[in-house]
User: Fold this.
Amino acid sequence: MKLLEESIGDVSKALTGDLSGIAEIVHIDENTRVRHSVKVRKLNDDDFNKESLKKIRITLNMDQDNFANFMGVSVNTVKAWERGRNKPSGSSLRLLSLINRHPRLVKTA
Assistant:
């Protein structure tokens, strides 16, 4: 149970630093509702190039098929990213940013 609590805490810390499009997080416990402001880090596709994308995948010890499945994209999309033909966007870009900054989150999941 402690490992689960630590993992949830790690995810929470990572997300708090990387949220996009959310200006406020609400924490609710049994008695209190507390609002916390969050500074949003805007990402763009220039944050990752073909070399850095491949490095992330290799760091996670995944082949292109597994990485594509993990990311929720096609293998052809991963290949296009790694060849520099396309760049990740939207939720893929956000997930890559989290993985890049906190690879342990994937390894412990």
